[in-house]
Amino acid sequence: MSTIFFKQKPRIVGWYSVAGKKEGQGPLRETFSQIVQDEYFGEKTHEMSERKFFITAIEGAIRNAGIKPDIVFAGDLLNQIVSSSFAMREIGLPYIGIYGACSTMALSLLTAATFVDSGLVHTTVAAAGSHFATAERQYRT
Fold it and tell me: What's the pLDDT at 132?
């Protein structure tokens, strides 16, 4: 077993988070970039809503960072990581989908940092998300 040592410390240069109504009522409400009151986020289905959450968060992070990323590492809890995959079709950046359930964000950050440190890419986006209604349907039925 080996340990990964980065030549340079990875940096987060921009971020954006989108939360739902319940999260917006909790103790972390001040830390979210945007709180959405409508669980459908103006869409027809929860799956389309989850895709919109991804698009909003990724585009917000890119805007806040002032960079054009080379690639996006992202994932969600649905089969075939469908929400992040469909979001990336609309965003139009190269994408590697990551599925790690609860570890998806950590895996996205680690993979992004490793790609940057190796010199394969200069800037990346790491993202993860889930919508209570899509995850509930996925795991309860």
Answer: 82
Cα distance between the two ends of the chain: 38
> Going by DSSP bridges, is the β-strand pair 18-19/71-75 parallel, antiparallel, or unpaired?
unpaired
- What's the rounded Cα separation, in Å, for the pair 93 and 91? 6
Helix (H) or strand (E) segment spanning residue 53 = helix 46-65
The pLDDT confidence band at residue 141, using thresholds 50, 70 and 90, is low
Residue labelled with tokens 């080996």: 2
The conformational region for residue 81 under phi > 0 = left, psi -120 to 50 = alpha, else beta, is: left
Cα distance between residue 37 and residue 21, in whole Å: 5
DSSP state of 117: H
